[in-house]
Amino acid sequence: DAKTTQPTSMDCAEGRAANLPCNHSTISGNEYVYWYRQIHSQGPQYIIHGLKNNETNEMASLIITEDRKSSTLILPHATLRDTAVYYCIVRVENNFNKFYFGSGTKLNVKP
Amino acid sequence: GAVVSQHPSWVICKSGTSVKIECRSLDFQATTMFWYRQFPKQSLMLMATSNEGSKATYEQGVEKDKFLINHASLTLSTLTVTSAHPEDSSFYICSANEPGMYGYTFGSGTRLTVV
After folding, report:
1. 3 state DSSP class of A81
2. Cβ–Cβ of A95/B46 closer than 8 Å?
3. Shortest CA distance to B103 belongs to which of A40, A97, A63, A51?
4. Residues 6 or more apart from A23 whose CB is under 8 A from it?
5. What is the residue-wise DSSP string for B10-74?
6. Which residues of chain B neighbour A93 with C-beta distances below 8 Å?
7. Which residue of B has its CA nearest to A85?
8. Average pLDDT over every residue of B26-47
């Protein structure tokens, strides 16, 4: 699976949009981009995933560049409960393929 | 949605003893489950893939005789840390994939402290 690069940490004001970038310049055509987050001392939580098109769900939006070499996770109105480590993972879609986690981005939402 | 349950959520054991952690898929069957370990302020590290009805496959550097994995049914995988030592103290997390769904669902984790 392709390697991802994320900033170590980011700050965001409560109520503002949080934009978390991820670089995956070696991504293959059949690899999906997944985002998970881990709140302290809990298991990771699925947020969103996509292949080529931008995606939106009740939690977030995922913007994937046209060349697919990078993506941005957008939390439209961050709250204090969104403080967590956010992981961007690229992976070929297969029931038996593993998820390898990188170092992720620690998002600090501040009042 | 899919739910993966881990038990216990935390455990303290004495050095030299063994401890078993359970991972259950509550509302779906999982032929494959995954076990991760996470040390403080570090990312999740994949330890092994648990396969129902067959042997687990371990990631490079993970001692299979120390971390025994059993996947005896389609809804239960267990991880046994044998002869635990303080350096085995960590956060252990399992995950499973619900057939037909994208991505994996993770359990809430088990905090193991070896004293």
Report:
1. helix
2. no
3. A97
4. A4, A5, A6, A69, A70
5. EEEE-TT--EEEEEEESSS--SEEEEEEE-TTS--EEEEEEETTS--EE-TT--TTTEEEEEEET
6. 102
7. B43
8. 93
Q: Is the dihedral of CA A99, A103, A105, A108 positive or negative?
A: positive
Give me the mean pLDDT over the B1-23 stretch.
Answer: 95
Contact: B6, A43; criterion CB under 8 Å? yes
pLDDT tens for chain A, 111 residues: list them. Answer: 668 999 999 999 999 999 999 999 999 888 999 999 999 989 999 999 999 999 999 999 999 999 999 999 999 999 999 999 999 999 877 656 788 899 999 999 999
> Hey, which of B24-28, B55-59, B81-85 has the most confident mean pLDDT?
B81-85
Give me the amino acid identity at B14.
K
Closest residue by Cα to residue B7 from B87, B82, B79, B97: B79
To which residue do tokens 């992976």 refer? A91
For residues A80-104, b (16+ Cβ closer than 10 Å) or e, as one string? eebbbbbbbbbbeeeeeebbbbbeb
pLDDT, averaged across chain B = 94
